[in-house]
Amino acid sequence: MNWYIRIKKKINKKNLRTRIAKKNSNSRFIQIMNKKYINFSSNDYLGLSHEKKIIKAWKKGAEIYGIGSGGSNYINGYSIEHKLFEEELAKWLNYKKTILFTSGYAANQAVITSLIQKKDIIIADRLSHASIIDAAINSKGKLYRFKHNEIKNLKKLLSSNYKNKMLIITEGVFSMDGDTPKLKIYHKLTKEKNALLMVDDAHGIGINGLQGRGTCWKKNIKPEILIITFGKAFGISGAAVLCDQDIGEYLEQFSKNFIYSTTIPTAQIYALRMSLKCIKKGGDLRKKLKKNIKKFNQLNKYLPYIPKKSKNHIQPIILKDNNKVINLTNKLRKYGYWVHGINTPTVPHNTARIRITINTEHKKQDIKNISEIIYEFQNI
Ligand SMILES: *Cc1c(COP(=O)(O)O)cnc(C)c1O
């Protein structure tokens, strides 16, 4: 078949994803064309993407260091700022090593594809982020997925594969469901079988735990490998892997993403260091976020659509049916609330949903209004 016949056949299908170009946004508002909406879809949970101190730091960083890092980790791209940021993160989260990557996607690829060799086993929660699942599929090992947050299923897989090296992967706060696994039990089970536990805390870092140290800190566990990202609560972009000395040195030597990719711009690292400072001191922001989540939970207590009862900033309104999701999304947008529907196949069959994210900058009235519209929709 000709290349373009195949390509066209694929892109002419129905239900393709579309992007909507925003004019601008912050964590409370988003402007699309000429309409301003209250934004219930942002990952900028603490509003730091517009924090003046961080913007100032980025500008100052650019003045000192220029705008590009000028190279990869081994050739010209690693600076004293990168080194300081690594040390600050390691100290903050109590790990020996920090390895920086330009994105969470790259970090997950790097760890999984470089650690996993032939005959190794990856055991991941079924609902893990695509960057985890794709890396596992692309690796030389074998992937097993266990039922979402189900210990029994995980135990079984651990027992039947214990002769091989096993990497167990889950998330701190799941990106589509807002729930958290029983991490303490996971770690106990994985240690018993000499497996490594890897937790991707993209949505928990900056939010959960003392001074925002994340979900693992809150649950009092220290997984062998912790992934954090800077595109969510940190308000910028980039990611880091936290681990012990040996795993860190291994990644530095054998991760292609680490070796052959341009490092995060030094000025951005300068801004990220300020963002880290804001997060450490962000007790008030987290308190406000908790208050907003509580308000949302209270107002939606009787809504049958939120079966998971997420206590986190991610609140799925599970309508099951793709058409219903489209209808409620349109209705909310008509009234000035910006949300995104997540349909199958992004989420499993029969779990189509609207993914609402609560953030620090929402006003009480925003939460009340959106809840009312959802409630009315339910009664149609
Ligand atoms: C967002 C996200 C990523 C990807 O991080 P990027 O920095 O956006 O590439 C990885 N894992 C999880 C769980 C995420 O939510």
How would you characterize the overall build of this protein?
The chain contains 14 helices and 14 strands. With 380 residues, the chain is of the alpha/beta class. The strands form three sheets. It has a seven-stranded mixed sheet, sandwiched between helices. Strands 1-2-3-12 form a four-stranded mixed sheet. Strands 11-14-13 form a three-stranded antiparallel sheet, covered by helices on one side. Helix 12 packs parallel to helix 14. Pyridoxal-5'-phosphate is lined by residues 103-105, 108, 129, 131, 171, 175, 200, 202-203, 229, 231, 237, 239.
Question: Which terms summarize this structure?
Answer:
380 residues; Aspartate Aminotransferase, domain 1; Aspartate Aminotransferase, domain 2; 7-stranded mixed β-sheet; 4-stranded mixed β-sheet; globular; binds pyridoxal-5'-phosphate
Low-confidence stretches: none
Ligands (ions, cofactors included)? pyridoxal-5'-phosphate
In total, how many domains does the architecture comprise? 2
CATH topology of the largest domain: the name is: Aspartate Aminotransferase, domain 2
Question: Major β-sheet, in short?
Answer: 7 strands, mixed
Q: Any idea what the CATH superfamily of the largest domain is called?
A: Type I PLP-dependent aspartate aminotransferase-like (Major domain)
Shape: globular
- The proportion of strand residues reads 15-25%
Q: What is the name of the CATH class of the largest domain?
A: Alpha Beta
Secondary-structure-based class equals alpha/beta
Mean model confidence by pLDDT: 95
* Helical percentage: 40-55%
Helix-strand topology string:
HEEEHHEHEHEHEHEHEEHHHHEHEEEH
Tell me the CATH architecture of the largest domain: 3-Layer(aba) Sandwich
Widest beta sheet: strand line-up: 4-10-9-8-7-5-6
Radius of gyration: 21 Å
How far apart lie the N and C ends?
49 Å
* Contiguous helical run count: 14
The counted number of beta strands is 14
Cofactor: pyridoxal 5'-phosphate
Catalytic activity: 6-carboxyhexanoyl-[ACP] + L-alanine + H(+) = (8S)-8-amino-7-oxononanoate + holo-[ACP] + CO2
Protein name: 8-amino-7-oxononanoate synthase
Family: Belongs to the class-II pyridoxal-phosphate-dependent aminotransferase family. BioF subfamily.
